[in-house]
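Example record used in the benchmark description.
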Amino acid sequence: MTKGVGGKTRDEALATLSDMTAGIMPITAEEFAARIAKAQRLLRAQGLDALYINAGSNLYYFTGTRWYPSERMVGVVIPAEGPLEYIAPAFELDTLKGYMTIKGEVNTWHEDESPYALFGDILKRLGYGKGRIGMDESAAFFISDGIRQACPELELVSGKAVTAGCRMQKSAAELALMQRAKDMTLAVHKAAASILREGICVTEVEAFIDAAHRKVGAAGSSFCIVLFGEDTAYPHGVKNPKCLELGDTVLIDTGCKLQGYNSDITRTYVFGEPSPRQRQLWELEKQAQAAAFEAAQLGRPCGSVDKAARSVLEAAGFGPGYAVPGLPHRTGHGIGLDIHEWPYLVANDQTPLAEGMCFSNEPMLCVPGEFGVRLEDHFYMTQDGPRWFTQPSHSIDDPFGILV
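Model output (structure tokens):
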């Protein structure tokens, strides 16, 4: 077992954890209102008359209303000027009102009526019957297609400039929620390492990690990837994962949500004494992660961070580009209410790095037939440059810094 961790039963490991959510402050109604005001400023700057936001993370971000997307149209219209208006099935009216943080008029439709025609009626009443309307880029095709057919006089365009324009840069309150969520998941990682034993199977570790996330105050794991041995060479796992053997590389990638905000941390280490090859590639991965962090400077394009990490691996003979053995995916992704959101640390993303942006840093090294190493921590941009949410792994022998 990795030096300094291990040897605990499931119950002993869970007993080391406790609720970590004390003192957490939810996003306030005032902040939701400020987000809407910013969206309206961006609408005017983009020459858009209104923005349609569909159920999902965008709806929550702007209104505080938690509602999951389905085949029924539920959302909100944010006009460039004036109060927002909701649209929802009539039978959901009272339920929807109970979930609202930002109140607004609710326009309802019955099951035998068209919500798309109702959408057009709302825009006409607001004075935008022939307007240029931004559409939530996460909305299903059937919604924009239904509106297009019912309201051909409307010009529908992507609303990403507004949605991403607001969400890419996190507020202090958002950063605090994300920090706590990541602290919770890191504690879970440490506990998970302590239960590993020869013969343990992936399903047992996944079940423990879910229980551990609940113990620290989350509603369980929002996702969990556990891989051993050669399986670790495949970023999102394999169909039939193997059980743990002595000398196996261990890769665990998991996260949770706190007030809707995500954590996402990966740790890679070895069960037993690492081989020289495992040590070599682990250290190379750590160098690539460090290079990405150092390259993340205000004003530089997101793509430059990806190139910095990739150049470290290519200099060691891996790749080139996205070829394996090497780094087959982007170096990182934005994170917030969605686990993957804009912008992205990928070579062709020219978005300038700005204060408040948050990213994963995970330039995974994949060597099919041998093993893979992914060290994933997240950072956010400050006026002084990047800052880690969680400190990177210390060493392959001491991945959690227990011995330092």
